[in-house]
Amino acid sequence: MDINGENALKFFGKMTASISHELKNVLAIINENAGLLEDLCAMAEKGRPVDPGRIKTIAGKVIKQVQRGDEIIKKLNSFAHSADELDCDVDVNDILMLVTGLAGRIALVRGINLETDQMTDPVIINTNPFLLETLVWLFLDYAMEAAGEGKTVSVTAEKQHENAVIRFSGLKGLAGMQPDSFPGDSEKALLAALNATAATDAVAGEIIISFAS
After folding, report:
1. Is residue 164 helix, strand or coil?
2. Cα separation of 10 and 22, whole Å?
3. Which residue, 121, 100, 123, 136, is CA-closest to 18?
4. Environment class of 148 (CB within 10 Å of its CB; exposed 0-12, middle 13-18, buried 19+)
5. What is the mean pLDDT of the chain?
6. At what angle do helices 52-81 and 92-102 cross, to 10 degrees?
7. How far apart, in whole angstroms, are the C-alpha atoms of residue 109 and residue 102?
8. pLDDT tens digits, residue range 30-64?
């Protein structure tokens, strides 16, 4: 397997594992509230008064988790279908929203706050969407390590002249990291495959990916 395929496979495994954990949490909460409803039913069967407010609260919690589960499934569906086409026009904003959404639980475990300000204007490039998602994840993973004491990573897309640019900013710990350690071979291979370059500005606390038009 080539290095791009290997990285993509690892990325797919990482994200689907995270999604499965999220779904298990959703089901656990629904199961817990179903147990509470059973207890209330048992009380009612014995002639004990049941507060309708408690039932309403429990039902609200179940509805909230169903909605949460639906959003998780929508992200998983979008993620799966991103491998349908090898090259197509994509809005980089949509890619960033999907990858940061998939990485939300991972960021939470690491104590990192992800900020994604979607631009009003689309940032369209013709590329392989799944490989682009893989690249964004590899850079986001490193950016979370470089977040430093700020514990916040901002990810945005924009147009600079004719080029599309992805910017990882707020990286307060970037200056203290090995400057030659990133991008590594995996990231460089994906950058080359996607006709992109990367630059690190330790003073500004930014990593920028630029895609040639």
Report:
1. strand
2. 19
3. 100
4. middle
5. 89
6. 130
7. 13
8. 999 999 999 889 988 888 888 889 999 999 999 99
Kindly tell me the burial class for residue 24, based on how many C-beta atoms sit within 10 Å of its own C-beta (0-12, 13-18, 19 or more): exposed
Rounded CA Rg of the chain: 21
How are strands ordered across the β-sheet holding 152-160?
Answer: 113-116, 152-160, 163-169, 206-211, 196-201
State the pLDDT at residue 1: 46
Report the Cα 205 to chain-centroid distance in Å. 21
CA angle 193, 180, 159 (to 5 degrees): 50
Residues of the chain with CATH 3.30.565.10: 88-211
**CATH 1.10.287 domain range(s) in the chain:** 3-81
CA 143/CA 155 separation, integer angstroms: 10
Cα 55–chain centre separation: 34
Please give the angle made by the CA atoms of 4, 8 and 13, to the nearest 5 degrees.
Answer: 150
The CATH classification number of 3-81 equals 1.10.287
Tokens of 147: 């977040």
Tell me the CATH number for domain 88-211.
3.30.565.10
Q: Which of 159, 190, 86, 172 is nearest to 198 (CA)?
A: 190
Helix, coil or strand: residue 170: coil
Residue type, 98: L
Distances (CA, A) of 138 to 107, 167, 182, 183: 13, 13, 10, 9
Please give the model's pTM, rounded to 2 decimal places: 0.84
- Tokens encoding 17: 């594992």
